[in-house]
Amino acid sequence: MKNLVAGVDIDRVLTSYALVDEFGKIYAKGSFPTQDSKNFRDYVARLKDEIVALANNLDTPHTITAVGIGAPNSNYYTGEIENAVNLAWKGRLPLAQELSSIFGNKPVVVTNDANAAAIGEMIYGGAKGMKDFIVITLGTGLGSGIVVGGNLLYGHDGYAGEAGHITVVRNGRECGCGRKGCLECYASSKGLKNTALELLSGTDAPSKLRKIPMEKLSSKDIAKAAKSGDAIAKKSFELTGEILGEALANLVAVSSPQAIFLCGGVANTGELILTPTRRAMEKNILPLWKGKVKLTISSLEYENAPILGAAALAIKEIEKRNVVVARRKIF
Amino acid sequence: MKNLVAGVDIDRVLTSYALVDEFGKIYAKGSFPTQDSKNFRDYVARLKDEIVALANNLDTPHTITAVGIGAPNSNYYTGEIENAVNLAWKGRLPLAQELSSIFGNKPVVVTNDANAAAIGEMIYGGAKGMKDFIVITLGTGLGSGIVVGGNLLYGHDGYAGEAGHITVVRNGRECGCGRKGCLECYASSKGLKNTALELLSGTDAPSKLRKIPMEKLSSKDIAKAAKSGDAIAKKSFELTGEILGEALANLVAVSSPQAIFLCGGVANTGELILTPTRRAMEKNILPLWKGKVKLTISSLEYENAPILGAAALAIKEIEKRNVVVARRKIF
After folding, report:
1. Any idea what the CATH number is for the domain that residue B24 is in?
2. Among A155, A160, A212, A266, whose Cα sits 20 to 30 Å from the Cα of B288?
3. Is the pLDDT score of A61 beyond 90?
């Protein structure tokens, strides 16, 4: 009998799920549109049914020992999704409790996608064996999962690791959070795009990017142009990396990680973002850490990283509960 | 038989030590000039002799169970003082190992003063029962001790918590670390003084501070002038608090603490620094934390805080070792 966990990644459009073992082998996976269900309870029931159907079709004899979920604005401590602006259902959604109650009281744990990515890196990826590291997700926004002493930094309320909302430019770009100059306004696909637009607006120099309708301009377009030698596109990556690297140097001063992993769409451009980020990080880092903190792209396969992160969350939780039970026996 | 720990605070001038119980009661204390000893080995021998002499004079029957030491540039993981610029002995000094070997192999643990202050706050002060909080020491420089999940954030190499070297002003004031614009260039007694000088240089407005020789100007002088209504002195505290509060808002985004405690000389000025810091922190904090993170002055008595922090470090270490031993029994 094989022990498997279910890893679930919930985003605005799609809910993806997979059955995964402790080595990161995906036995089966599926997905369905997140916002098809009328209400939250129906959604949770469907999620359970989908996982069960996937499991029933599996040839390998197995038990699902736990479910890990990466979801926007979700809280590890409460098990809830709390006021996620990009989901249709409002208020506090008791996701972990609800799913566990209709799924044989299996352990169900939730956290946001950046935290899940960090645990994925620790259990399956480049951070195996590391106890102190940071994962930065460079998607539409910037998320961070900070691991200290082998555990995710959740903080007092479960919301630690909001490095995307460190202020990096006083009175800078307007952020979705209502404040100005947040890191994610600069280091993210949206930030990269706005940096390109800013550069384009300040010069008449020719650029392939000018042919693309502004609202369609993506970090992929900018990467493609940069690779073909477009000066504005290259400069956009350099400025993005500069701000990101400076911010990472500050994060190192706070948590002294062994390594920092970049993942998500912008990270998928590889050296284009990595080189200027590393340069700026090394330039701004305290002397005692110069050349010592590894900065690299996540080793998890881009497409499967979110569900692997969620699966890893479930595995980490089982380990944690085993330790607690073991400690209770002797105290 | 009473269990006591020895708490030792080493600074450039004085080595202070005390015998302390688990409630923070100081049974006896003493001090000697740090740099009297010819070499490091003699220094450690004297430290041991001083603690033993203090213990021998104690009426209460007791055992010294462990020694905790707060020292500049010291590393919890290695037990060493590493290249402390303000001590006469150079290189890596194996303080914990050396003292333990001549002191009956008692557990000896070291960390820097800000980390010790954080553990002091947790065991004896306002952070009792808290698992996630930050202590900021505002002395000549700025130190930070960050506690997450009940444990001090040491990071990969033992040097985490260098919040004083977060860059807050690009190309700002020159820092002792060789970089520019570090938080401690603004939020510390030195920073406060330089802000006052900057303000004085930009105006002819009268100020009591002008009567004090520049090299003698202290944060105490500025506090005294501010309390008597001196506009420049008041403004100096406001600007210091503004930068500090902004930095704290960023730290909250990273580690989501329940509370932040200020200690050290500048913190000893109370509301003068607390009010503008709190205002700026609340203004810059992410909406989800507005009004939720307690910002306060350390509740430990200013004079004894360093040795209490060091004693608390020893107590925390004994607790930690007991847990490890207990876990080993069952795994």
Report:
1. 3.30.420.40
2. A266
3. yes
